[in-house]
Predict the 3D structure of the following.
Amino acid sequence: MPKRSPQQRAGFSAEAFVDKAVSDAGHVWNDTWRDFGIDGHIEFVAADAQVSGFAVAAQVKGTAVGFAGESPAGFRFRCEADHIDYWLRCGRPMVLICVNLPEQRAWWKRLDTWFADPVRRARRMVDFDKAADAFDLSAFNSLAAIAVPVGEALPRLEGSEQLVSNLLEVTGFAPQIRSASTPCRDRADAWESMRSNGAFEGGFHLSGGRIHTMATLEDGPLAVLCDGLVTSVPTAEWSDSEDEDVQRRFTALLNFTLRSAHHDELVWHPKKKIVYYQASSDLSKKKVRGRYRGSKGRAFFAPYHGKDDATKVRYCRHYAAGLYFRRWAGLPAGRRHLVQKPGRANPVRQPPDRRGRCRNR
């Protein structure tokens, strides 16, 4: 008589768990009976009961004894190399859902972006954080977001959701904006003039034959750019103005001021309009320690070597952030400007130069 193995039983039970979880959240689980690395699809249903047509593909794994190396904080799951190749070729959002059957808990991770990293793909390992990757009712907003193509509106799902903004309120400015006439017509002229003195300051804005800054103009690097009397106005005249031209000038001045004030180890990329972490002098990995005890920290710069020659650097990855100000009319006067919070951003990849060094500028 044929027998069902414990692995098969765990697999069927895990799929049943996912089916129920998806149905309880108000969405549709579509089984894939011919399994070639995809067990089914989660199709999302909007709050008005309209089936959206947006879906993510899912591979489901279950265990009755716990996952290898499982701890209260997380665990790792090793994937088959041919499955990884298939997931990356299938051209749709792909998630892995791991179910602990005795605990009746599950966790998920997006695979097509996880294994886009060549290091992770070579390791074939998926790291799960039990707090961040829980497959529960709160996960479906994130799952729906990756199912919707860029440019399409997100369906409004049932239940509540929490919006976490990456904007920080600017609570104060320098008290004065100083201005003076200048012969410089663009920033290239200004940099050339400052180069003669060997001192630079980027926190200024040029407009209408005048230079505007929150820094000093009487002395320092910007003094060489002035050819007239220095005047000043309270910053509130610009920050609270309803004149659109003044608003644009003030936002531009804030942007230039912020870019000039970033950390010494960050570099401004003029083409990509971002700041990114500099390469180390010997191309070794640079990590920033995590906030919490036991945290592994984050590698903000890392070199990647060729498969054929482990001594040759193929490219370097730098973490980066875009820094922009936005004016928010809903805030009271004097507190209407928000700045995008630097955080996890897509890494900047660039090849080393002919000497094997990554270019910092």
User: Anything to note?
Assistant: Residues 6-24 form the longest helix (19 residues). DSSP finds eight helices and 21 strands in the chain. The two ends are 70 Å apart (CA to CA).
